[in-house]
Amino acid sequence: MKEFKWGDNPALLVIDVTRALADEEVKSSYPPCVEAAVFIQKLLAKARDVDIPIIFTKGGKLSHTSGGISMTDTERGGWAKKNGIRVESKEEAIPYMEILSEISPIESEIVLEKSRSSAFFKTMLDTYLSSMKVDTVIVTGMMTSGCIRATVTDAFSNDLNIILPKECVADKRIEAHEYHMEEMGLKYGRVEKIQDVMDYIDQRS
Prior knowledge:
This protein is α/β, with parallel strands linked by helices. 41% of the residues lie in helices and 17% in strands.
């Protein structure tokens, strides 16, 4: 098997680490996501130490009815076709659009709102990565079987090297997480221990 290229110019992607998923004070959160967020904090600190690009994503107004006002089928698109329109109260919706405070972006970091699973779909992500000449994405966040896999698939289609720190990715279902991590490691990139990823980041300093 050909040796995996780690790349010379990585960026860290932090996908949907929102309060609704990773804040144990929020009823909708999941223990695996809470645990992964602790490791993401460590990796984020390392990335900031050596000044590599960091890009966050979160849900936006096309994903959640932040004012308790239902959106049209057209606005919700595939979500509406699959699950129907569900009107959320502001209290329900806001935690899905707020990044966990422990990993809050700093002023210089990019935050993208997305309305579908992939961080690339109708966002500026590919443009930002290209402008910074990024050749490798370190993908962290939630959920492994959904937004992470969709983002990884699109990153692969854009010819990027992909690294998945295994402690920094989570899903609400352990079996789904394990299956999709294995599949992504076989097909699209490398699943690595967080310490190995931190060592890789250190080597660039």
